[in-house]
Amino acid sequence: MGQGETWEPVAEYLNGTSLTLDKKLLKGGEGLGVRVMVTDGFQTDEAASTEKPMFAIFLPLVATLLLLPPFVAPTHGAPPDDIDAPLTLNTFRDIARAQMPCVVNITIDVVEEAKQEAPLFRFYRRVPNHPEQHRQGMGSGLIIDSDGTIVTNHHVVAGADSIEVTLTDGTVFDASLLASDSLLDIALLKVAAEHPLQAGQLGDSAGIEIGDWVLAIGSPYGLSHSVSAGIVSALGRDINTGVFDSYIQTDAAINRGNSGGPLFDVQGRVIGINTAIISSSGGSNGIGFAIPINRIKDILQELREKGKIIRGWAGLTLRDLEREDLKERNLDSRQGAMVTEVWKHSPAADAGLLKSDIVISFDGKDVHNTKQLLFAISRAKIGATLSISVLREGETAPRKMTIVILERPGEIAITARSGRPESILRPEGLGITLEPISGELRKRYEIGGDSGFVITEIEKESTAADAGLKTGDLIIEVNRKRIETAAELLSALQDSKRLLLLVKRKGESLFVSLKGKL
User: Fold this and answer.
1) What is residue 375's three-state secondary structure?
2) Is the pLDDT of residue 5 over 70?
3) Long-range contacts of 223-230 (CB under 8 A, 24+ apart)
4) Which residue numbers are catalytic?
5) What residues contact 377, with CB distance under 8 A and at least 6 apart?
6) Model pTM?
7) Opening angle at CA 87, ends 82 and 91, nearest 5
8) Residue 502 has pLDDT above 70, yes or no
9) 329-343 average pLDDT score
10) What Rg do the C-alpha atoms of the chain give, in angstroms?
């Protein structure tokens, strides 16, 4: 929702738009047709039955609302001076006015190689030869420190050659990328401001509840610092974008360009970072998703100090329990995570875990599903010895053991539903993204029937690029050993100081040598 989207004027969609809504009220055969017209900001209603002046309909309602006592907003985790803050007719206006300066508009520029035409054809058409072309993207961000530190989404700034940040007063800064994490979809930027900037107050997403009012501020379709309001419509939502899905769902209008912008509660505290929408048209359908702010607060210091998130690793492939599992194992609940693979020489293998074990507790806490367990492992302290309990096939009592958590070998995005650990691999130090071969990749890169891992992204001036590797290359062997699984690939890439890759490129096999241990 940020990178690679060209800004286009959308003002024409905001005037003269009409929406017709017909409802058949099957009481005595009566029907009511309502037509809502939005023209230059004015709304008119036309009823199919009796006509009444607008003020005659709404004046009693407004008078009643004004006479009601102010509603006291929920105070989950609120600071002491905010506990009795009432929700009034001016609450949203006051939050927007106070918090607008901490929200920024982000514009990125991506330099890409232009497609080259044959010299004769170019001369004939009188087309100049441009060796590169520029593509712009947009998004939003939140100032989290007065020194100019900004949080946004990874996908907003990924691949950017330059980043510009615009404040609400129109001030423009060049921003540098401090750190980025694709699994959590979070990035940190820094601007060099001459004076302290207003930072947003980070709230407590653990205290929010379904039905709480929220405000979103961002730059939908490049319309800087736009405000929308709604409620929290669901919590812990999994939309299958990654292993760590646990989003806040809201019906506040969120569109392309809102990515990376804040979601506020009615005390003006940030409780989430807007990230995704579900839409058939590309516009808001009232289903938007935000990363809970507590997950971001948990990794901010690590991102600042180390430039990345160091995650724990156990060497397990997992999946959620299914109905058939309950029947076969005579279980009463789907709580737990089924082990489908134990990686060789991994912490799980050393602990004695086996395929088909069902993990029911980890570090003294019950395991509800695969994603919860994977997240808990990822945030465990490296080197820590933790307890783990499993139900083993043929046994009735839980088996308890200990496991030593190690650092995750490279950046691995796991698809929890399928239980495959090799969805996306980014081995540290190479500058490439690898994906297991699939039908779609075979077609895209004209790959035959070989198995292996395809290079789908490659960084400029990286070790892999210097060695001559290209996107679409299929890695079949590493140091003369056939690669079948992600575990084998990562192990081979890390264990050697010099790598010899057997690569297949458009039907031709070639060896590529890389120097340096990862």
Assistant:
1) helix
2) no
3) 223/10, 223/257, 224/105, 224/166, 224/168, 225/100, 225/103, 225/105, 225/168, 227/92, 227/96, 227/100, 228/252, 228/253, 228/254, 229/92, 230/286
4) 155, 185, 259
5) 312, 313, 314, 316, 362, 405
6) 0.62
7) 90
8) yes
9) 86
10) 27
